[in-house]
Amino acid sequence: MEKDVYILGIESSCDETACSVVKNGRVIISNIIASQADFHEEYGGVVPELASRMHVDAVYPTIEKALKEANMSLTDMDAIAVTYGPGLVGALLVGLSAAKGLSAASGVPLVGVNHLMGHICANYLCFEELEPPFLCLCVSGGNTQIVLVKDYSEFEILGRTRDDAAGEAIDKIARVIGLGYPGGPKMDKAGQGGDINAYTFAKTHMADTLDFSFSGIKTSALNTINIAKQKGEEINVQDFCASYQNHLAEILVKNTIKAVKQTGVRKICLAGGVSANSFLRNSFDIAAKNHKLELFYPKLGLCTDNGAMIASAGYFEYMRGVRHGLDLNAAPSLKFGVNNANT
Ligand code: KG4
User: Fold this and answer.
1) pTM of this prediction exceeds 0.85
2) If you placed Cys at 19, which of 25, 46, 214, 307 could pair as Cys (CB 3.0 to 4.6 Å)?
3) Could you say which residues of the chain have pLDDT below 70?
């Protein structure tokens, strides 16, 4: 029998300090998340310098808790995986420096992980039987991409947003209608039971491409809000949120189905913070049934940033021989999916 491989995963790219121990890339042994969301709420968004400082406070206690909960020590780990990009540079540097320090002190190998690969790997933690190839719609605060996952560490980007990410389009409108930060989960809740046909928004026409564009849709939502204000009319927040999220979901589903037809790949995964959205999940449930596709999405706690997805990605990178030296630097604009996760 092959030896089990344990990876410590460290994540600090935005506003969660997270650490996890994962066995063989699939089984979560411990998963600790210290979220700063409540702290940033009063500023209406993440304040990068404050995020970095809070990561400094939280990073070692979070790592200690993850090891303690797993009942393991650092030297039981086969590798330390850490997000080195993309993300906020100051925030990334905290997790990365902590990981490098631990690696230098213990001799446990260091494996740098692309955050976006991590989001995709959250699905492996939820579905033991899931194997590539599959199509993955990655939707988060900073990214919207349709990725062909050819193998565990081999990716091809088939479509991407040309302007805003879907998460940005949700967060911005949530803020304007007064829901505050973090906008995504608040808008999701506010739209429950609302009429999805009550409001209409701009449609973007981009034939012959799997790319997205959300900025025009966002502007049309802002116009609707401003026109109502000028006329002294009230926006029905519940209906507005339901219509807006359903509109975004339909666009995301439409291009993903186009990708299915183009590639012939009939297995789809969702990944990233916005994959927690109930309107999106519901639209994909319906599409998967209509088109007879296999559909996977991570459980709610693993859609947003966490250390387990980084440990899972770290496992697949470790197994194909990836090791990083202590010169590994933060890469805030790290690209994804050119040849493999790290190019
Ligand atoms: O993946 P993530 O945690 O961080 C990035 O890597 O960007 O995604 C954060 C994004 C934010 O835009 C947040 O509003 C959104 O995910 N989000 C949601 C929901 N939960 C989180 N958006 C819509 N509905 C949700 N339930």
Assistant:
1) yes
2) 307
3) 338-343
